[in-house]
Amino acid sequence: MFNATAVSTPFDDPLYAGTDFSSLNWFEQQWVAWYVWVGNPIIATGLASFLLHEIVYFGRSVPWIIIDAIPYFRRWKLQPTKVPTPKEQWECTKQVLLSHFTIELPAIWLFHPMAESIGMSTYQVPFPSLKAMAPQIFLFFFYEDLFHYLAHQALHYGPLYRHIHKIHHKYSAPFGLAAEYAHPAEVFILGAGTITGPLLYCYFTRNLHIVTVYIWIVLRLFQAIDAHSGYDFPWSLQHILPFWSGAEHHDFHHMAFTNNFSTSFRWWDRIFGTDDKYRQYRARVQAVKKSMKNASKEDMIKFEQQLQDQIEAEGIQAEKEAEGTAAKTVKVQ
After folding, report:
1. Distance between CA 56 and CA 224 in Å, rounded?
2. How many Cα atoms are found within 13 Å in the side-chain-facing hemisphere of 83?
3. Cα separation of 7 and 28, whole Å?
4. What's the whole-number mean pLDDT along residues 23-52?
């Protein structure tokens, strides 16, 4: 099926009538072979979309599972005393699979008809150039980040938090697999931010290929899983792009319950002041590190743990307030 020679001559398939197969690159040839082999573009697109998500999501999570099992990497773990157990990872995996099979799988078969109705290219070849795809993908990142920022804050509102978002906050120290550990309703709500960006763009421009959407989804999955990894390496992207969110930014959200509601970028939290506690926390850590530069590593670790315990205690109280199970109190800064 995936032999390049086999797809180098014209098919009898009406989808590719008049296509010059000799001009296609290897990836485009495999794309044609897939659609011809499946024989139905709706099924081919739906199956490819589902498999892409599952393979990338769990494939990207595996390295973090391995890293969690190796003590050497604790030096870069943001909350080093909280390492997920195999039992926690398995419970997380089951919930993720439940959401994937109850929300994503039934809905994904509608994607091809919807995409074609607004002019999106699916089975067509050749693919657009990287130069054409890059600005589209950036717009999808921008749109999703704003969508997620607003929707995420809404999910911290009493009833929505209590009945939906609370599941995702089970882990105050997240790990890679937990990126999509959520109520099926939350998967649908926040997933809308990922897919409606491309759909709206295509509706207004009539110029989008599903390959661009797939690349965007792969990058978005990498972003989400890495942001939940719980690790901040010197080579992590946030140290190269200061406006990138990353694990160091999102880990605080799980620890403190409040602040840092965006996904990919830091600017909405900064503009609207929803990173105030986070910045105070980072400032305290840096100030104490400077004042304790001659202290032992053990003393430094002890201080950071005490500060994290304090932040987490405040987060537990904030969570109770969001649920309406505790009277609001004034936080000690």
Report:
1. 12
2. 17
3. 10
4. 94
Helix (H) or strand (E) holding 43: helix 41-68
Q: How confident is the model at residue 56 (pLDDT cuts 50, 70, 90)?
A: very high
pLDDT of residue 115: 94
Helix (H, G, I), strand (E, B) or coil at 282: helix
**The pLDDT of residue 91:** 94
Write down how long the chain is.
Answer: 333
Q: Quick check: 46 and 111 in contact, CB under 8 A?
A: yes
Long-range own/partner contacts, residues 164-172 (CB < 8 A, 24 or more apart)? 164/189, 166/319, 166/323, 167/95, 169/254, 169/257, 169/319, 171/84, 171/88, 171/92, 171/254, 172/79, 172/82, 172/254, 172/255, 172/312, 172/315
- Kindly indicate the confidence band of residue 327, based on its pLDDT and cuts at 50, 70 and 90: low
Coil, strand or helix at 20: coil
Give the separation between CA 61 and CA 13, rounded to whole angstroms. Answer: 38
Residue 13, pLDDT score = 78
pLDDT band at 20, cuts 50/70/90? confident
CB neighbourhood size of 200 (10 A): 14
Cβ 261 vs Cβ 253: under 8 Å: yes
Retrieve residue 149's tokens.
């920022």
